[in-house]
Specification:
single chain, 13 helices, about 400 residues, 6-stranded antiparallel sheet, alpha+beta, 4-stranded antiparallel sheet, about 35% helix, elongated, 18 strands
């Protein structure tokens, strides 16, 4: 589960990581009031300037016009009105963009250096890892791609925490010395504390800056929480903003189906995460583009299968569907009956390629064969099924 920047900064404050003063606003009048309050807190005189930042679950806001500047309460209200209620399109949102329902006003700090600091999960080595770079800011993705050595990686032992040697290497990377190195170490340890105590899979400070007064502060922050641990953190679960989530992913999650929307035209219904990934891969290898990752689960029933088809067919980009089922716990006749139910409830206009193997496979095939109204093509081998569904999408 992703958090908005202002929510992430609340967590940073709770563990002692310094951030700029800021206030959230959801209406233009609230933005004007927030500007006046910030000006008072910062003891800003004539010409006090603050940022007005769109809050959404995607990066690239600055380059997309989602970070504006205000030099008066009236201008803060006007800038908020420009952002609130629109869908902001960035390089990370896709063409549909994401809605902006809040803006964060924060003080502008005079910066001498932008750094990058993050803690995430290294899934190849099954452990947390700290990432740090002297070259932080909006182009960190390009830095990572073009010059990976510019970002150091420091693994973290879950039991031992962050050792002094790691703190020293990160401080050296940031070219911090003396008291500044001490503060840097405190921030790194606080980052680990936040991630560990809140079950976060990502805590990112980008940029973490050194101001012209030689102070460290997190100008922006991104936090992603482990959905599977939210039962331990009801106060964090309450921060969820469903307006920022893919509607079909949200619906699937509520009924216990693993679904991720993609950009292609071939809908996929598969049982098992590994088989689902392999199915997406073989579609790509056959020249097609999957429209989704969908794992209906090993023990799904007819109702869940019906719901899964409804989710797939709700995507207007889908031109054909590939059903790939290996029946172990899952029974092939349940898949067939779910497909029949879905076509009775929905207006199915796309062809469906079905590859069934395993438990009750003959009964499943019999059910589909008897349903004359269905545009169903049965294929025994996965590679052949993938090639067939790609051909069908090209024919549409």
């Amino acid at each position: 589960m992703k958090l908005h920047e202002y929510q992430a900064k609340q967590l940073l404050t709770s563990v002692g990581i310094p951030i700029p003063r800021g206030a959230i606003a959801k209406t233009p009048p609230e933005a004007a009031k927030a500007y006046d309050e910030l000006k008072r807190q910062c003891r800003g005189g004539t010409g006090f300037v603050c940022n007005v930042k769109a809050q959404l679950h995607a990066g690239g806001r600055g380059k997309a016009g989602g970070v504006l500047v205000a030099a008066s309460a009236e201008e803060a209200a006007a800038q908020a009105a420009t952002l609130l209620g629109r869908r902001l399109v960035t390089k990370q949102t896709g063409p549909e963009g994401l809605p902006v329902s809040a803006v964060l006003l924060d003080e502008r700090l005079a910066v001498q250096c932008e750094l990058y600091l993050a803690l995430t999960i290294d899934r190849f080595h099954a452990q947390p890892v700290l990432l740090a770079s002297r070259r932080g800011g909006v182009d960190i993705e390009e830095v990572a791609a073009a010059e990976p050595s510019a970002i150091i990686r420091e693994p973290v032992d879950i039991a031992a925490g962050v050792p002094e040697a790691t703190l020293s290497r990160i401080a050296d990377t940031f070219r911090c010395a003396g008291e500044q190195a001490v503060v840097c170490g405190e921030i790194v340890r606080a980052l680990w504390k936040l991630a560990e105590s809140h079950d976060a899979s990502l805590v990112e400070l980008n940029p973490l800056v050194i101001t012209e007064e030689d102070q460290l502060a997190a100008l922006d922050a991104k936090v992603t929480l482990d959905d599977n641990a939210l039962f331990r953190h009801p106060e964090l679960a309450a921060m969820r903003d469903e307006s920022q989530e893919h509607p079909l992913e949200l619906k699937a999650g509520r009924i216990g189906i693993s679904y991720v929307g993609l950009e292609g035209t071939i809908g996929c219904l598969v049982n098992g995460a590994g088989l689902a990934m392999a199915t997406n891969d073989i579609i790509k290898l056959s020249g097609g583009e999957p429209a989704n990752f969908l794992d209906v689960g090993g023990g799904a029933n007819v109702e869940q299968v019906t719901n899964a088809f409804a989710i797939i067919l709700a995507d207007a980009r889908v031109k054909a569907v590939l059903v790939n089922i290996f029946g172990g716990i899952m029974r092939c006749d349940w898949i067939a009956q779910g497909l029949l139910n879905a076509t009775q409830q929905l207006e199915v206009k796309v062809p469906i390629v079905v590859r069934l193997q395993g438990t009750n496979v003959e009964e499943g095939r019999r059910l589909l064969t008897q349903a004359k109204r269905l545009n169903v093509i049965s294929v025994d081998e996965l590679a052949a099924a993938a090639r067939r569904v790609v051909e069908l999408t090209r024919a549409v």
